[in-house]
Amino acid sequence: MRSEPAVSSQRLHRAEDRQGIEPVQLSGVAGVTAPRLDLERSATGSGGAPRVPARIKDLKAKDFRAALAGGEFSLAYQPIVSAATGAITGCEALLRWQHPFLGPVSPADFVPLAEETGAIRPIGAWVLEAACRQAAVWPDFCRVSVNVSPVQLQDPGFADRVVAALRASGLVASRLELELTEGVLMGDVAVALEGVAALRALGVSIALDDFGTGFSSLGYLQRFAFDRLKIDRTFIRGLGEARESWFLVRTMHDIARHFGMAVTAEGIETEDEARMLREIGATELQGFLFSRPVAGAVATALLSEQAHRLRSGEAEPPAKSSDHPVP
What we know:
Pfam families: EAL (PF00563). This is EAL domain-containing protein. Residues 57-307 form the EAL domain. The chain is of the alpha/beta class. It has a single domain, classed as Alpha-Beta Barrel (TIM Barrel). It is built from ten helices and ten strands. The protein has helices at 61-69, 107-117, 120-136, 150-153, 158-169, 189-202, 219-224, 243-258, 271-280, 296-311, and strands spanning 73-82, 88-99, 103-105, 143-147, 176-181, 205-211, 228-231, 262-265, 284-285, 294-295. The protein has an eight-stranded mixed β-barrel with strand order 1-2-4-5-6-7-8-9, surrounded by four helices. Helix 6 links the parallel strand 5 (176-181) and strand 6. The longest helix has 17 residues, at 120-136. It starts with 60 loop residues before the first helix and ends in a 16-residue tail after the last helix.
C-alpha cells in the first residue's frame, strides 16, 4: 500500500495499496505470469452515485458484520523473497474489501473504524483462519505473515484464536509469522509483553513491522525479542540517491543483527535498491520489483513451480524461515 501514513493500526493488511491485484512476473523464481484479478469494480446505483452508506466514515459495526457474513472480504498475498537466492520464503497476507455499494475500500480507511467499533476482532480472526488454511497447502519452505492490530494483541483470548486457527488448518506454528507495528509498543507495554510471550510460547514467530515509523525506544527491541525486523519502505525510497538514507538503513540492519533478528526490507521497486540491500546484508526483500499482491491460487501456483524447480535441481533451496544471522 503506497504512501500510507505511518500509523500502526492502518498497517494491518496494508494494501501495497491498489485494491486490484496486478499481473506479476517473479524474476528468477518461477517465471509465471499471473492473470489480473479485477477487484476494482464498484457497485453503484443508477447514475453512478454510490448507495448508502454514502461515505466510508459512516460504516458501522453492523456493516463489518454484514461484510464478513456476505463474503466481501478476501486476501491477497505478496511474496517475500530471499535476498541471497531470490526464492520465495514467505507471503504476507493482505486484506481486501469489496463493498457492494462503495466498491473497493482501502484498509487505511476501514481498519481504524473496525478498531473503534471492535469489529477488528472478528475480522482479524477471519484473516488468521483464512491465511492459515491457505498456507497449509503451500510447500513447507514458505511461511505466511499476518498483520495483527494492537486491539487484537490486547485481547486476552487472542492466543487461543491463534491456536484454533493452527489446529483447524493443520499449519505448523513455525510457518506462521505475526507482524506487529510499533503502535503495539505505545500502549500498555506489560499487556503487550504478556501477549507476545504467549504467542512465542506457541512457536509462532513475531516480526516488528514498519520499523522506524513510530517513536518507540530501541530498548523495546531487546524487551520484546522479535524474530524479525521489517524496515519500512519510506527508508528504502531514494536509497541510491542519498548517502544519509544508506547509512540509516545500514544502522537499522546492524541494530537488528545485534539483537539476533532477521531483516526484511519492504517496498523494493528498483534493481538498485535490491542490490544495495543485498550489500547491506538484508535477509529478505519484498516489493513491487518482485511481485505485487496476488490471489491465493496464484501464490500457490508460483510456490508449486518453485518446489518443482527445487526437486529438479534448477533452483537453490530458500533459507528456512527461522534462519537468520546471529552475532
